Amino acid sequence: MKADFASMTSLCLLRLSAIGDVCHAVAMVQAIQKQYPQLKITWVIGKVEYQLLKHLPGVEFVIFDKSQGWRSYTTLRKALSGQEFDVLLHMQVALRATIASLMISAKVRIGFDKARAKEGQWLVTNHAVEALATPHVLEGFMGFAKAIGVEDLTPNWHIPVPAADTQFANELIGKDEKVLVICPAASKAERNWLPERYAAVADYAVSKGYRVILCGGPSQLEVDLAASINHFASQSIENKVGQTTLTQLLAVLNRASIVIAPDTGPAHMAVTQGTPVIGLYAHSNPGRTGPYTSLDNVVSVYDEVINEQKNAPIKWGSRAKGADLMMRIQVKDVIEKLSILDSEILGR
């Protein structure tokens, strides 16, 4: 298969969302660029996700704004009019992505294997990646690079940040400071840990010499959760929720000593910066969606929950259901992970 792609000159990547997934996709893109440095790469991406990756070298972005409804498809068609790519990597299983792919002309259209090519994806592709039994999402994405002959699939990330954003983070966090950044909110409230438990961990961290900073987006859910954490905390916690752009947040995560987060984009952003992450998981399998380089640091009740809910053999991507599952994660278990990272990784 490698020989078939050696002469390709253009590639289109279709991955619209979400933040964590596009972080995984960056590692794949940069593995492709390493092997094919002259390849022209066009990435069809969501509007929000573009704000994080817009400075990525060697990639031309085309924004797909789903808020435009059906007009988003005609806008995409116009943006790509007259272009035929050698290869399309169709990397999103969603009906809107399947429809969007019809606006993209490509000779070879690579999608997921049969088991994963849902939402009609199999109808609009003519090649499939290798099937994997128990892949992490990042490994599943790397399958696309492998399908076009990439040999070195070791994940590495280089996501440029504007100098002003780096300066913002440097001014916020001193060079030798111990800083715990908590990004407490996921996109769905049920995946969030309890505010009083976040506060208890924050209090412990402060007692061990950490500055604790809350970070996140400007949604009301995130603002309210941060306020609740501050209410329950007895120590001083700095609240920066809603006060950073995505690239500023990336720079802050780079400066952090440790990050705590549930199943949410900033956990994967921290991975791209080489910062250790304590992931909190109940609804999804951390082996599949956890912070890739910090899987040993995850605090998870997923296995016990999913085994209670499923009698039949459990599929790798199965999600547990329930509004109160995160209550099963105990403060002591998170503090234990924090202590281990503090002593072993940080050497303190």
Secondary structure elements and pairings:
Elements: H1 2-5, E1 10-14, H2 19-35, E2 40-46, H3 47-53, E3 59-64, H4 71-79, E4 84-90, H5 95-101, E5 105-111, E6 127-128, H6 137-147, H7 163-172, E7 179-182, H8 195-207, E8 211-214, H9 220-232, E9 238-239, H10 246-255, E10 258-262, H11 265-272, E11 277-281, H12 286-289, E12 299-300, H13 302-309, H14 331-345
Parallel strand pairs: 1-2, 1-4, 2-3, 4-5, 5-6, 7-8, 7-10, 8-9, 10-11, 11-12
Helix pairs in contact: 2-6, 2-11, 7-10, 8-9, 8-14
Give a concise summary.
The protein has 348 residues and is an alpha/beta fold. It has helices at residues 2-5, 19-35, 47-53, 71-79, 95-101, 137-147, 163-172, 195-207, 220-232, 246-255, 265-272, 286-289, 302-309, 331-345, and strands at residues 10-14, 40-46, 59-64, 84-90, 105-111, 127-128, 179-182, 211-214, 238-239, 258-262, 277-281, 299-300.
Q: Explain this structure to me?
A:
- The mean pLDDT is 96.
- The protein is α/β, with parallel strands linked by helices and 348 residues long.
- It has 2 domains: 2-147, Rossmann fold, CATH 3.40.50.2000; 164-345, Glycogen Phosphorylase B (Rossmann fold, 3-Layer(aba) Sandwich), CATH 3.40.50.2000.
- A 6-stranded parallel β-sheet has the order 3-2-1-4-5-6. Strands 9-8-7-10-11-12 form a 6-stranded parallel β-sheet, sandwiched between helices.
- Helix 2 (19-35) runs parallel beside helix 6 and helix 8 (195-207) packs across helix 9.
- It has 14 helices and 12 strands.
